[in-house]
């Protein structure tokens, strides 16, 4: 053990005072990173932390604890060089500190050098073999290097040893998206259950991971595999997955369809729904709603479902009590939205909380949420287009999501300064963001939730997306975001309103004939505004192109029937290589996703026009570019590619390269 003498010359009373100040600084620093406080409160705590550290360092300039903590504060404020110097100064004053090597590890990650970060975290573990922070740092560094399987095992170990940090769950969930599951594994199943049980995680992002585990557990690749209804009804992983995710897996969809049919067959035979089957029945109903009722049903099932709906109407007519309706409603909800049934008006006599607790998620999804969303749609002229549609053909919001991804709260000005290296001194207190093609709003709401200095305008051509996102924002008590159709956004910009950040999501479809995204961006952007866009386009698989040709040749309409028939055709030929790309895409497993990509595809000409706009180097400057994995690229080569494309070189085209690029308006 090495004895340190860095403060031996100081009187004990001074040493004690420095220790107290560092302790107070640590407490203030903890508050400054507390998710329970507002951003303004956290900034105030950060300021107090600095004041305590200044006092401590005035009394003891070489205090290793004070130097290290000040380094953390500087790093959080984006001052990476200052932070690096302070961490090293702390180690010079007191070598062998695991904490400072951890700090250097996080400094290296912030500097986008994950391999160096791993080295620092391993040094920290050499100093302290029990350091959970260092072990967690190794996991983060491995993940950033793309070693998802190794990082995943590190996160699992942390959870097994009692860590309950949000960043551990979030990191494990992030890695899970990249794992390939080839055999049944009890530990993986337990991991999936732990992630699905954890509130606040974006469970929608691990549907593929969970689906692969379910596929292996039920041996779905084996045509002779037997699935027992009672066993499935007791399978915690399956029920959690049905409640919380959408599994983009053809074999799992077939399993769900088979289980639903088995439930219906038993009900038809016994005229009752056993208590043991009710959790599975409710979970399938939630899942069916999430898919937009994409799940295929045989004619005899549809007839039975219709008979059950007729019986519910009769039960209302003779004024049977609520309890007598519950079993029938559970079965009905597996096949269609309760909001669309002829007895929907009678359901309105009860509030959501009047239903048994286990039924409330299904009742919310199948009835109450849809009612709220319909009320929101009435505020927009675009609602008129839906009035001539059958209830079941009204588009459903997509993508389906339930939780925002985990982020640390910050400000847009900090992001512009730290991530893009831009001068933010002359910017106003509140910045305005417009998200073009926000879809059902997850990304837009993450910007509004985690950036404390913004108001967000989210725009989409789907009224279903606008209604769902508005309802979700109201549920989250968010008052700094609005969701609009393009018509209102165009009027807003035409009235002279401008924005400081443009985020381009899903591109408008060819149906938006009166919209030029490039013209809107050009008019809406103030001098210094940032445009963040992607140079690739999704939804371009061979299967998509074949289906879009079928739609055009046969003049198909986006009804539930035609969408289900197109899906059935693909699933019937799932072993044909031409459908592989489509079957791998999340969109295929929801009628909303299928409708978007086949009947409202993204318009490539909108992206070409937008790229042509930002290629003008007099007006726009490329300030950052990232590849598909999120790694920063040198802007010089990308800029040369843009210039070559402007001169007509298709070989050098950015279109289709899946880069994430940030341009700043020069004037």
TrEMBL record:
Q: Which InterPro entries match?
A: SAM-dependent_MTases_sf (IPR029063), TPR-like_helical_dom_sf (IPR011990), TPR_rpt (IPR019734)
Q: Which SMART domains match?
A: TPR
The record's listing under Gene3D superfamilies reads: Tetratricopeptide repeat domain
Q: What is this protein called?
A: Uncharacterized protein
